[in-house]
């Protein structure tokens, strides 16, 4: 009639309860670990992507070789500016047709696109000086040299550069890298056909 509960039975019930609590803790820990691993993987892929973009912004730059101005001898002004560029050390492929250029001169700031973009307004042109393949606008070899030409006699262009004028050019590549080139027109152009700026 009467059931006697011994100490051994009580210990068994306590042991089963402890086991259930332990299993629940293991399951919660496993789920939390899964979430942490997924989050870590996501953050790692994002950081790699950001690192690659930052690397391109730093490395995919242009390097100025020389800047030359064509002299309009009848007015003692510069009518064209040619900037010869190459890849900066460690740079990847750079397509000049996708670049934008900020021209900051005596008459203000202009933003130019490549003439192949057909967007109207004042634009810049490129000409291969030395090209290792048939690409017309792509610097993809350290030996490649292209002229970036600014025609100051073209429609919508600012006035020709007078003696002593200062200009800053910022070339922004598609990867976001910026190359800044500054030059000053000599104080006396004389009877020269062209001058280094």
What is the mean pLDDT?
86
The main pleated sheet reads as: 5 strands, antiparallel
Q: Tally of extended strands? A: 11
Helix content: 25-40%
Q: Poorly predicted ranges (pLDDT <50, ≥5 residues)?
A: none
Q: Please give the radius of gyration in angstroms.
A: 33 Å
**CA-based shape:** rod-shaped
- CATH topology grouping of the largest domain: Immunoglobulin-like
The first-level CATH class name of the largest domain: Mainly Beta
Distance between the termini: 114 Å
Largest sheet strand order: 6-8-2-1-11
- Find the structural class using helix and strand composition: alpha+beta
Strand content: 25-35%
**Helix and strand pattern:** HEEEEEEEEEEE
Discrete helix count: 1
Transmembrane segments: 12-37
GO molecular function, one term: structural molecule activity
Pfam families: Flagellin_arch-type (PF01917)
Main location: other
Describe the structure.
With 197 residues, this protein is an alpha+beta fold. It contains one helix and eleven strands, in the order αβββββββββββ. A hairpin with a 5-residue loop joins strand 9 (166-172) and strand 10. It is rod-shaped, with a radius of gyration of 33 Å. Keywords: Archaeal flagellum, Cell projection, Cilium, Flagellum, Membrane, Transmembrane, Transmembrane helix.
């Amino acid at each position: 009639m009467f059931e006697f509960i011994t100490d051994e039975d009580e210990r068994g019930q306590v042991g089963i309860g402890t086991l259930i609590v332990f299993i629940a803790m293991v399951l919660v820990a496993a789920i939390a670990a899964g979430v942490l691993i997924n989050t870590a993987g996501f953050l790692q892929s994002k950081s790699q992507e950001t690192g690659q973009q930052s690397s391109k912004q730093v490395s995919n730059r242009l390097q100025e070789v020389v800047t030359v101005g064509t002299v309009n001898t009848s007015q003692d002004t510069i009518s064209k500016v040619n900037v010869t560029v190459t890849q900066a050390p460690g740079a990847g492929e750079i397509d000049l047709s996708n670049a934008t250029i900020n021209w900051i001169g005596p008459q203000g700031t202009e933003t130019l696109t490549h003439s192949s973009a057909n967007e109207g307004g004042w634009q810049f042109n490129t000409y291969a000086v030395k090209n290792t393949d048939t690409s017309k606008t792509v610097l993809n070899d350290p030996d490649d040299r292209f002229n970036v030409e600014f025609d100051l006699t073209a429609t919508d262009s600012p006035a020709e550069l007078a003696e002593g004028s200062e200009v800053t050019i910022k070339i922004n590549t598609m990867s976001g890298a910026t190359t800044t080139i500054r030059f000053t027109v000599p104080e006396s152009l004389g009877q020269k056909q062209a001058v280094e700026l």
